[in-house]
Design a protein that fits this description.
By secondary structure, the chain is mostly helical. It has 3 helices and no strands.
């Protein structure tokens, strides 16, 4: 039981970290494009979102997320990674 729970925690942490990396890369790309005038300025909320994903990944890795929050975070991360 403990091994499967640990495996799920690691899996959730990895997925959330990957989603944060995708969002970070998209924000950096948007910032670069806005610097050369090809795109509007990236809103700061995008960076807040990246920070939230990072915090969720850390909490998931420690097993500190309540089940409902963990489930929603994983669904959100799957959507972010899917959009890449």
């Amino acid at each position: 039981m403990t091994a499967s729970r640990d495996r799920r925690r690691r899996s959730d942490r990895d997925l959330l970290a990957r989603a944060a990396q995708v969002a970070r890369r998209q924000a950096a790309q948007g910032q670069a494009e806005s610097a050369v005038g090809r795109a509007p300025i990236v809103p700061y909320a995008r960076y807040v979102f990246v920070g939230l994903l990072d915090e969720l990944a850390l909490s998931a890795g420690r097993g500190e997320l309540p089940e409902g929050v963990r489930r929603l975070a994983v669904e959100l991360a799957e959507k972010v990674v899917e959009e890449e």
